[in-house]
Write a structure and sequence with these properties.
Layout lengths: L1 H23 L5 E3 L16 H7 L5 E6 L2 E6 L2
Antiparallel strand pairs: 1-3, 2-3
Pfam families: Defensin_like
InterPro entries: Defensin-like_20-28
Family: Belongs to the DEFL family.
Length: about 80
């Protein structure tokens, strides 16, 4: 019985750690035109503003051309 309780407690604690990441995933897989014009090959490298904006919650950020203008996109 004690072993089952320990496993359940571990699972609950693990879920608490995952929940904050799931909520922040809303930032990923989206474009952010409000961040302003970005430069491909510059803004999407570590230290570039697209990368820095996205990296805390996503797999990074890139500068993509959408509809004739460059916009930051947070990777999935």
């Amino acid at each position: 019985m004690a072993r089952v309780t320990l496993v359940v407690m571990f699972a609950v604690l693990l879920c608490f750690g995952c929940s904050s990441h799931v909520v922040s995933a809303d930032k990923c897989c989206k474009e952010y035109p409000e961040k302003g014009f970005c430069t491909q090959g510059v803004s999407d490298k570590p230290g570039g503003f697209c990368w820095d904006f996205c990296i805390s919650e996503c797999k990074g950020g890139v500068c993509k051309n959408w509809g004739g203008k460059n916009e930051c996109h947070c990777l999935c």
